[in-house]
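One chain shown below:
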Amino acid sequence: MHETKDKWLREYKQKTGIFHNLTNNEYHDSEGISSSFVKKWLTTTPYHASQPSEDLSPSVVDIGSGVHAMFEGKNRKQAVIGKHKTRAGKAWAEDYQQAKEDGVVLLPEGEYAKALQMTKALWKHKDIRKIARNKTAVKEASVYTIDEKTGLLLKARPDLYTTDKGIIMDVKTFGKIPTERNFFRQFVDLGYGYQAAFYKRVCEQQGIQCIYFAFAVVEKKAPHSVNLFLMSQELMRMYEERLDDVLEEIKEAEKTGDYSTGWPSFTMLHPAEWMDTQL
């Protein structure tokens, strides 16, 4: 068993509540169904959700993690430049592995500089800055609950929530210009609405109010434009209703052990209408 999971079992036998001192590694290694699992269940198949995979390159993941750490004011502890120009070579590989074990985000100099510029851009947005500087803001708490409807152990790690305004905010790095049209397309395709509904469910069951769910979105490329999106109550309700069904599906899968793709034994392919003109 992984050392951090051992620590979880020793120190957090209660398993539910709000914990402020778990590292990212400890959170990810701990028990519980996460929003990432739910999103993968919906956007791929139950089989894919139940299997480990690497959907993004380490560089993409690490820059995103670096931005999150810097935005939360942890840049000196959580993201470091190191002495590396690139990700090539034995020295990088050894330092990178050690950083992962230590819960540190290690970035080459160029990626670090990029993450820092993205973080500065987020802080320049007056409304994002206002939320982040709220005196009641809580950053990266780990929240666990036994779901009231399904009995499943659920977990969430919001980037930030405020206890006085009922705001939960998630930071997203974005590959395009973050216009409403561009972001909403990715919002739907990648299941961000399910993530929001899931976070709301977990947090509210532990007494954290969610009146507004916000996405602070920063463009990955220069000039690193920033936009802030809030989910309407109507949109949130749509995702909450579907989330009920999904959690019931997951509960049934846990009971039966069936995490199959749901595909038939074979699929017959037939001519499509467009083939007459395009073949």
Remarks:
- Strands lie at 17-19, 79-80, 105-106, 137-139, 142-146, 153-156, 160-162, 167-174, 212-219, 226-230.
- The longest strand covers residues 167-174.
- The chain has a mean pLDDT of 89.
